[in-house]
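User: Fold this, then the next.

Assistant: Folding the first:
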Amino acid sequence: MKFGIINFVFAFLILFSSAQAEPVNYEQDDAHTIVQFTWNHNRLSNMSGRFLEHEGVFELDFEKPSKSRVEFTINANSIWTGVDKLDEDMKSERLFDAANFPEIKFVSTNARKTGLERGQLAGELTIKGVTKPVMVYIDVNYNGPHIFPNVEKYKDAKLAGLTIKARVNRSDFGLGMAVPWIADEVDILTNTELVAYPDGKS
């Protein structure tokens, strides 16, 4: 009987400690993170661009997503479309006004699972000084031990790969120039690899 009680207490402690576990703090792998945006031009073609400078805070709990927290900041001046004149227009006062509003920022407010490897992230997106609620959709491409555990740096490290999608109306953020000839809807696609090192190593 005593042995059974000890086992029960031990099991309870394991469950309790698991329930109290904190989200894991992941670092963004800049070399494997791409932020793209796509819009329709005059119903003729789908154009795209990228933001080259960005950083994120990813405190993730894949088992209990509601405990997760994400902040993502983009440098508006790092916009790149491959066309210099278009880059200048994008940064100008008519659109992002990057000189006065250099940061684009997303802050999560809630997260939940929607499938085995899918989730939704509610949050607030700030562009050009305007903050609006947005819903972000996440595909978890990988979540587990680092794929190179024999490399000393990655021993006991965790790895995650995410595809993150969102759709916004640019006019909501004061970027409505040339709507509706140029589409109001903009699709944002981010692919990122994240690493969590043990004991704060990096």
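Now the next one, as you asked:
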Amino acid sequence: MESVIILILIALDQWTKGLAERLIGETGCVVVIPHFFELRLTYNKGAAWSFLSNKTWGIIFLSAVSLMITLSLLYVLKHSTGKRMRLVLSLIISGSIGNLIDRLRVGAVADFLSFTFGDYVFPTFNVADSLITVGTVLLIIFAIFDRKFLDGFSVLKLTRWQRGRGASTNDESSDECDKSRDQSTPDVPLSQDKSGE
């Protein structure tokens, strides 16, 4: 189920970016709510708030980091059992893959959602950024207020591993005990024991 959700969210992110590229363009601007919300297409070669955007190697570094994080989160998602954990991971993974596709496709992330709060212009972002932000906020909230939230990850797998480790250790120790007992106390027939008295 989570794979379907991830694919839908990635498709939504890419679709909205494609619309922005076709309908707005780099020089265009669509005012939705005056002095508050507008659509303005920009390309960010860095991370959030244009971090590393002025570095020539930044896009390669960020793409590699994004790929490693995404693969790690997919592994965690595969081994997690909690519904909330799987939801949070699905949101973050979708956003990460959406922005990774942009970096591989055009060498930058397409941002087009622009908000202004008085004199402060919030950094332009996209749907993928929203997914990552919402997923991260939910992760923090669930981790703080729900004690069982983090219990869903690999609990069964870890328990099985510990049991298997413990069982194998017990088997080895019992085998060693059997060997030492056999070597130290050889079996003596009952008839010989009586005849020796």
